[in-house]
Amino acid sequence: MLEKEISYALPTPAGAYYAVSTAESDPPRRLLRLLLSQTESPRLSPEKLPQGCDRECFERIQRMGWLQWLAEPLTVMEQPLETILPELLAPLSDGGKVLLADAQGFYIGSNGFPHETAEELAALSADFLGLQQRYRGVLQGNLHLNAEAWGIVDAGGHTRLGVWPLHIGKHIFALVMTGIPHFNHPDFVQLVWTLMTRYAPASIVL
């Protein structure tokens, strides 16, 4: 444990997904979001945790595999979004067709889709985000469906096109892709980390 106590912490892909897949907040999400809002992966110790995450919270994060430990600190990517997004988005689907859109229906970055298709899909994703907000009560309250992603499925129930909301501070983005999603890819952490530092930077530095 001593080695981990002096190491630098960064959420794993699973931790990054847990942090931004919903707007709801709990102690583990608050710590993961705080880590993702720093421009450099900070040192973290169970003996000196930020306010709001106690030892029990930290142990849950460890048990769930939501943190990775680094020997050296990493720094978030600083290049313009339009430059780095295609590179970060491409590995997130087996077909490489992925785009990121804002809640107003404009795409910010895209890989594998023609421009006109990306524009139409971004507009469609905004409608899905609106549907999710409008029917949150029945989906999550009555049916207990805690997932917020939407999909177009074939007769076998396989998703052909999926829309996943990313809650970045007060902003909601839509990740749209065809094929099998690869959220366990390291570039998903880089994507969330890049968005968090630009749209929800922390006022607390660890």
From TrEMBL:
SUPFAM superfamilies found in the cross-reference section: Roadblock/LC7 domain
Domain of life: Bacteria
Protein name: Roadblock/LC7 domain-containing protein
Organism: Methylomarinovum tepidoasis
